[in-house]
Structure formats: structure tokens, C-alpha cells
TrEMBL record:
PROSITE patterns: NUDIX (PS51462). PANTHER family: GDP-MANNOSE MANNOSYL HYDROLASE, MUTT_NUDIX FAMILY PROTEIN. The lineage of its organism: Bacteria, Bacillati, Actinomycetota, Actinomycetes, Micrococcales. Residues 13-148 form the Nudix hydrolase domain. One of its GO terms (molecular function) is hydrolase activity. This is NUDIX domain-containing protein. It comes from Ornithinimicrobium ciconiae. Keywords: Hydrolase. The keyword Hydrolase applies. It comes from the Bacteria. InterPro entries: NUDIX_hydrolase-like_dom_sf, NUDIX_hydrolase_dom.
């Protein structure tokens, strides 16, 4: 059996992932990465491991990518990502459903020993929410969503990037 890479359209599974929305004093915690599209930002998160709850997944990913320990709160929103619709030249074999959870810092200082940066990750930063519009944050829809009325903003964002 041959190995199926991320660009292989025959890959037929949907990855389950979670992301943490860590907001402190109007600033969002993001990871900075460098890839094919240049610099881009993501909220900390990643794929769920077998035997792990969504909440455990978020807490682990935030800790590994940023060094911050968090208490995971409520579900904030979710999205689908179908790579073939956004980057057809190189991401056709990747599909992911992401759930974003509100997270609260347990300690204001990160633990550098806990950090296991993702491939292509170049750093971590706190970005004021108004500055997210026009930034390299993905999904881009998140930048406006964070500034919408919490009573009326959608929970499901659809297939956005």
C-alpha cells in the first residue's frame, strides 16, 4: 500500500481538530507560522488524538504550541476546511472540521519547557482584536467574527478559510 500525502485526493478521511480562543485584555493569542503562502497566523490547536476529549485536545494543543496552561470553556464556533476549495494546487487531499473553544489562562506566564512548536511555527504573539482584520490570521472570517455581537454571531462558520 502506498503512502498518501496531504496533497493526495485519494485520502478519504476528515480530520477532527480543535482550536483555543485565548483572549486577554482584548488581545488574541496566535501562533505565527511560515509556509507556502508566506507568514500566517492561527489560533493554537490541532488534531484530536484517539482517546482524547475535545477539551483535552484544546488544552494540550495550547500548551504545546504556546506554553500557556488553560482552562477550556464553552464552544465558541466551528468550521469546515476543505483544502481543495482553498488551495487546489497543493491541499486537495486534506479536509478538517475544527471546533473553537473559549480558553482562560491558568497562569499569566508561559512554561517554555512545555512548548513543542509545530512544523513551520515561528513564534507566538498577542494581537489586539481590532488589528486582526487585514492580518494573516486564518480562518480570515474569525477576525470579523470576534468583533460581532455575541448574541447574533453564528456558531457555525461553514467552509471558510
Amino acid at each position: 500500500m502506498r503512502s498518501r500525502g496531504r496533497g493526495d485526493a485519494e485520502m478519504a478521511r476528515v480530520r477532527a481538530a480543535t482550536r483555543g480562543l485565548v483572549l486577554v485584555e482584548g488581545r488574541l493569542l496566535v501562533t505565527m507560522l511560515h509556509g507556502r503562502t508566506g507568514e500566517f497566523w492561527l489560533t493554537p490547536g490541532g488534531g484530536q488524538h484517539f482517546g482524547e476529549t475535545k477539551e483535552e485536545n484544546v488544552a494540550r494543543e495550547v500548551l504545546e504550541e504556546t506554553g500557556y496552561r488553560v482552562r477550556v470553556g464553552d464552544l465558541a464556533c466551528g468550521r469546515d476546511y476543505l483544502g481543495a476549495r482553498h488551495f487546489p494546487d497543493w491541499d486537495t487531499g486534506f479536509q478538517q472540521t475544527e471546533l473553537f473553544f473559549w480558553c482562560h489562562l491558568l497562569d499569566p506566564d508561559p512554561d517554555p519547557a512545555a512548548v513543542e512548536h509545530d512544523t513551520h511555527q515561528t513564534g507566538v504573539q498577542w494581537v489586539p482584536v481590532p488589528e486582526l482584520i487585514g492580518s494573516p490570521l486564518y480562518p480570515r472570517r474569525l477576525a470579523t467574527w470576534l468583533q460581532e455581537d455575541p448574541e447574533t454571531r453564528p456558531t457555525w462558520l461553514g467552509d471558510v478559510n
